[in-house]
Write a structure and sequence with these properties.
This protein has helices at residues 10-22, 38-50, 78-88, 98-101, 120-123, 127-142, 154-166, 196-201, 204-217, 222-236; strands at residues 6-7, 27-32, 53-58, 92-94, 146-150, 172-176, 240-247, 264-272, 275-283. The strands form two sheets. A six-stranded parallel β-sheet has the order 1-4-3-2-5-6, with helices on both faces. A three-stranded antiparallel β-sheet has the order 7-8-9, covered by helices on one side. It starts with 5 loop residues before the first strand and ends in an 8-residue tail after the last strand. Helix 9 (204-217) runs antiparallel to helix 10 (222-236). The protein has two domains: 6-176, HUPs (Rossmann fold, 3-Layer(aba) Sandwich), CATH 3.40.50; 189-283, Pantoate--beta-alanine Ligase, Chain: A,domain 2. Strand 5, helix 7 (154-166) and strand 6 (172-176) form a beta-alpha-beta unit. It contains ten helices and nine strands. The chain is of the alpha/beta class. The longest helix is centred in the middle third of the chain and has 16 residues, at 127-142. The mean pLDDT is 95.
Length: 291
């Protein structure tokens, strides 16, 4: 059994946060859907540097899954997740039931335009509305001073930043660096779906992004980099490439078609079997290193 305290209602959550605040503590929130790995735990580590207390939420949000997606199959193991969070220094786990987040009669959804267009917004049209709605609820329920979101889901991070700014939610959003396996594959709960053969191919996504970043820094055109990146992934054994695009790192507008003159972000999603792998890489000004 984990010693990590667990609350399941917003009333319990707010009572604990109010108690901390009365003692002068600041609070950070790290929202998760469980099935935790080292990437999630790094969010707790970062949260502890940003605030006095760290709260993790564990909620597999049904509204961000399309009917054809893996909501029912999504891995769930609360006991193991709680043990990992406790060992990582988390102070409280908020694990609400669906009815706590979406009570009977719930009829509101949030749509964030602009940064949600294209890429994941095109591939999963209802996804970001579900994300924006549940994140707004979690931030309001927790009243966190800061919230931590991973940069692996970079478009999601920008959607959340837009959401918080537009709705005047008084929570500072911090992006956490991508945590990778030794071979470069970005850690993800869905990596568990990969077969042994697919897992051997998967690191090519990151390697292709790195090669694309180098090409941009060497003056290659955006159009050429995007085309070559998609072709390289298919040649490596990916079944399909949903997108391989060079975008502005802030508003996510398309770059190109010529060489870049300002910072950029390369974002890609490709399919191996039943798994969609997504990753991205930042490209600083020409002549600088990529990250």
């Amino acid at each position: 059994m984990s010693s990590l305290p667990i609350v399941r209602t917003k009333t319990e959550l707010r009572a604990r946060v109010d108690e901390w605040r009365a003692g002068g503590a600041s609070v950070a929130l790290a929202p998760t859907m469980g099935a935790l790995h080292a990437g999630h735990l790094s969010l707790i580590g970062l949260a502890k540097t940003q605030a006095d207390r760290a709260v993790a939420s564990l909620f597999v949000n049904p509204t961000q899954f399309a009917p054809s997606e893996d909501f029912d199959a999504y891995p769930r193991d609360e006991a193991n997740d709680a043990a990992l969070l406790g060992a990582a220094g988390c102070d409280l786990l908020y694990a609400p039931a669906v009815e706590e987040i979406y009570p009977s009669g719930f009829a509101t959804s949030i749509t964030v335009d602009g940064v949600s267009r294209g890429m994941e917004g095109a591939a999963r049209p209802t996804h970001f509305s579900g994300v924006a709605t549940v994140v707004a609820k979690l931030l309001i329920q927790c009243t966190a001073d800061v919230a931590i979101f991973g940069e692996k889901d970079y478009q999601q991070l920008q959607v959340i930043r837009q959401l918080v700014g537009d709705l005047d939610i008084p929570t500072r959003i911090v992006g956490a660096p991508i945590i990778r396996a030794e071979d470069g594959l970005a850690l993800s709960s869905r990596n568990a779906y990969l077969t042994e053969a697919e897992r051997a191919i998967a690191p090519q996504l990151h390697r292709t992004l790195c090669a694309a970043a180098r090409s941009l820094l060497n003056g290659a055109s955006v159009a050429a980099v995007e085309a070559e990146g998609s072709a390289a992934l298919l040649a490596a054994g990916f079944a399909a490439v949903d997108y391989f695009e060079v975008r502005d790192p802030d508003d996510l507008t398309r770059k190109g078609p010529d060489s870049i003159e300002t910072p950029a972000r390369i974002l890609a999603t490709a399919r191996l079997g039943r798994t969609r792998l997504l990753d991205n890489i930042g490209v600083r000004l020409p002549g600088a290193e990529f990250a």
